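[Automated response] Your request has been received and processed.

Submitted sequence:
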Amino acid sequence: MTMPYGNFQLEIYLAGLRGEVPRYPVDAESLERKAEQVLPPWIWSYVAGGCGDEHTQRVNVSAFTKWGIVPRMCVGAEERDLSVEMFGMTLPNPLFLAPIGVIGICSQDFHGDLAVARAAEATGVAAVQSTLSMDPVEDTGAIHQQTPGLFQLYMPKDRELALSFVRRAEKAGYKGIVVTLDTWTPGWRPRDLNTSNFPQLRGMCISNYLTDENFLNKLAKPPAEDPQAAALMWALIFGKSVTWDDLEWLRSVTDMPIVPKGICHPDDARRALDLGVDGIYCSNHGGRQANGGLSALELLPDVVAAAGDKPVLFDSGVRSGSDVIKALALGATAVGLGRTYAYALAVGGEDALVHHIRSMLAEADLLMAIDGYKSIADLRRDGAIRRAI
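Generated structure:
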C-alpha cells in the first residue's frame, strides 16, 4: 500500500528539525499573495479576475463554508482509500487539474503546460489540457505515461478543425475529451477590459492552432511572417455556441469518453447523457464567464442525482483539501483545482506545483482520517455532510 497522503505533513515537520521550512506555502491564500508579487500585472489580472463585479467568483469560494463534515469516531480510519473509478480507469486519488487556457504563461519560462503534465505524472493527479496552450497537444500528451490526461476542447466554428483537434488528442494518448460549453465568447471581465488585455489576441496560448494543418490552410501567410493575421484568424474561428447537435456529432466521431463541461442544471445533464456522453462536468468556470449566478457547489447535488451512475467532475471555488472532501461528500467523483495551481506554478514552477498538489491531498486525507471516513464511499453515506448555515 502507498503511504498515506497525510504523511506529507510529517516530511515538513521532520525537515524543520534540520532547520528547513517549506520553500512554498501550504495554503492557497498565501500562494495567491505570492503569485500576485511575481506575475506581470497583465497575466495576474487574467488569472485572478472574474466576470462583472466578481460576485459569482466570490460565492463559489464562500459556498463551501455553508457545508460541514460530521465527524464519526471509533471507526479505525488509520488507512484511507482515496482511489476513484472513472471512464474505465482506476485513479489513486480524486483530484485533477482543471483546464486553464493561460496556464502556459503562468510559469516563468512560458511552458507551463509542460510543467503541469510533469507534475501530474509526479503526483498521480490527472490533468485536463486546454486547447489554448503554449505547447501543442503532441508535446503535452507525450509526458502522460502513468497518469492519464484529458483534452479539453473549445469547439471551433469549423468542424473539420474540431475533428483535427480530436484526432490529434487521440494520437497523443489522451484518455478523453472535455468539451467546454460556456466559453464560446468571453464573459464581461472588467479587469482585462480596463487594460485592453487579451493574451490570445497577442498570439499567446494558441499553439494548437498554429500547428494544425487545417488552421494553417486558412492563412495567406505562415504565422511567423504575419503573426497578427494568425491571431485574428484564431479570433474569427475560435468560438462556437455548442448545441445538442454538436454534442451528438462529437459522439459520432470518437470512441473516447466525452465529458461536457459547464453543466449546472439537471435537465441539461440528463439531455447530455441521452446523447451518449460518458460523464458530466459541473462547473461555472470559476465565475470567469457569467456573473450573477449561484455557486457551482450549490448546484452540484442536483447534477449528481441526474447523472445516476455516471461520473461527475466538479470545479469552481476549490481552495483547500477540506473543500475537496466536501465536494466529494456532495457526490462529485473527482474535484478539480483551478486558480490555486496557477498560483503555485507562478510562484515556483513544477516544484511548487507538486508541493501544492501534495498539500491539498494531505489536507484532504487528514480530514478523512480525523473525522473517521475510510473511503470516499463512506463520505457519501447519509449524514456525512450537513448544511452549516
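Summary generated for your ticket: The mean pLDDT is 97. The two ends are 39 Å apart (CA to CA).
If you did not submit this request, please reply to this message.
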